Amino acid sequence: MSLILKLVAGIVAGMLAGLYLPTVLVELLYTFKVIIGQLISFTIPLIILLFIASGIAGLPKGSGHLLGKTVGFAYGSTIIAGTLAFLLVNAFIPFFDGGVAYQTVEESHIESFINIEIPPLMGVMTALATAFIFGIGMSQCGLTKLKGVTDEARDVIDALLAKVIIPVLPLYIAGVFAEMAVAGTVFDTLSTFGVVLLAAIIMHWLWLSTLFVVSGLLLGRNPLELIKNMLPAYFTAIGTMSSAATIPVSLRASKSNNVNEEVANFTVPLCATIHLSGSTITIVTCAMAVMLLSPEMVVPSLSEMLPFIFMLGVVMIAAPGAPGGAVMSALGLLTSMLGFNEGAVALMIALYLAQDSFGTACNVTGDGVIALWVDKFSKQS
After folding, report:
1. Exposed, middle or buried by CB within 10 Å (0-12, 13-18, 19+), for 219?
2. pLDDT tens string 181-205
3. What pTM, to 2 d.p., does this model score?
């Protein structure tokens, strides 16, 4: 929760700086934002390459039937959740005020003291293709030494996220909101923020309710009992903001729902890295809100959004355990597929991190439903 408080402090500090501080100090804050933004852009392909390659190479072997069912259910849940989120948000877009817009740097007349560029080592799609080639190759050929190098490189990027990028994000967000305060759009943007965050959390609850009610009816179980047994995992995830840290509680909760112990021990830890329905709901919802706020962007149709949702379910595989890992993994798709610029990316990060704990809670609670279905089909086979 401390990250959320720091994020709020960054928003407030940025607003006050933009409203009351001299222009030279605002430009100093904006300079920090530019530097941090370049570091984030440089890191995105490395996150995709190393985390996905390591995740694919580390998938368990010797349980092919369990692996296929778990991956299929988890990916299906993620895609359906993201699609339903798009349809719901799209239905309510006409009720939003289209006049509220994020102002660009040129419109706010703020300049950075340092114009620095840190080009990424590769493009997003190149990183994704490379990750699959090497991940599958390491897995099929048993290349333990190469996997060890990949895992260690992943740990370097994980440490960069946890120790550098995530801690300085409040300063990054402060620069964004200082810029908006100078442009005069900060209060309208914040009012939209509140509506979007509330909408994302409500959609989490609607999705979980649908999962448990439908699964309970089809499996002949009491949905209320299933939900009650998973509540400890939900509230633990809100506190830890990490699917991995919640695994012990999620395991105990799934076993309380009478999931076979072997199935639970396999499914729950795997779903902690590949089942991200809550994160997908949030990213889709927040992305559409940011596009609505950005005058140069057009909210896409379902046919245009579906490829993004399908890719989103892939790039978030093995998203780092640090808070905000899912959105950091998704930034490459936001820029390459949806055309997000630096300002839109900053708004996206702010929106996502403000509810990160609720998205994680939705992920791990949904893992309990995946375990129920894998258990059912494992008994049949």
Report:
1. middle
2. 877 666 766 767 777 888 888 999 9
3. 0.78
